[in-house]
Amino acid sequence: MWTRAYVGLGSNLAHPRRQLAKALARLDRVGGVRVIAVSPNYVTAPIGGAPQPDYVNAVALLATALRPRALLARLHAIERKQHRRREAKTPRNSPRTLDLDLLLYGARRIRSPGLIVPHPRMHERAFVLQPLTDVAPAIKIPGRGLARAFLPRVREQRVRSTRAARHPF
């Protein structure tokens, strides 16, 4: 059975637009996963932490036959291939070559160690909401409602459209 899932992509190191394009190509080659649509790329201000470069963010709509934890494992494997290191000592919101977040998995709500869906802060982040609503204007965040209803609450967060690396999707 195929499920629609939404993945947030972000990078602020080592040619961010290329990092996102490479991650999308790798994701589309994962067995049981097809990239259906990709939002435009957005340049966004970093949240918290020390001064660092701006991020490039996007959201991809996937069709997947993988279960949520298996999909998350594939996302982490792609991050590692692109030199992302998830270490306990690394501060939250640190610069990174690639960040892949499982935002939504169908209409499911999941809360287990290492996996929370919907992503717990997605409704507070313009860099997630803007590209998500580009791909799926009527998408609902399970337990919260329409994603676009949260956009006015994050309007002070800097998000601007930028050119995308070429996506074959």
Give your account of this protein's structure:
This protein is α+β, with helices and mostly antiparallel strands and 169 residues long. The chain has a single domain (3-162), classed as 7,8-Dihydro-6-hydroxymethylpterin-pyrophosphokinase HPPK (Alpha-Beta Plaits). Helix content is 22%, strand content 30%. The chain contains 3 helices and 10 strands, in the order E-H-E-E-E-H-E-E-E-H-E-E-E. It has helices spanning 16-28, 68-81, 126-135, and strands spanning 3-11, 33-38, 41-44, 55-64, 99-105, 110-112, 115-117, 140-141, 145-146, 159-162. Strands 1, 2, 3, 4, 5 and 10 form a 6-stranded antiparallel beta sheet that branches. Strand 8 and strand 9 form a beta hairpin. It is globular, with a radius of gyration of 15 Å. The model has no long low-confidence stretch (mean pLDDT 92).
**What fraction of residues sit in β-strands?**
25-35%
Estimate percent helicity.
Answer: 10-25%
CATH topology: Alpha-Beta Plaits
Decide which structural class fits the backbone: alpha+beta
Extract low-pLDDT stretches: none
Give me the strand/helix succession. Answer: EHEEEHEEEHEEE
Main beta sheet: 6 strands, antiparallel
Q: Which CATH architecture is right? A: 2-Layer Sandwich
Number of strands: 10
The fourth-level CATH homologous superfamily is 7,8-Dihydro-6-hydroxymethylpterin-pyrophosphokinase HPPK
- Tell me the Rg in angstroms: 15 Å
Tally of domains: 1
What is the 3D shape?
globular
* Helical segment count: 3
Give average pLDDT, whole number: 92
Distance between the termini: 22 Å
CATH top level class name: Alpha Beta
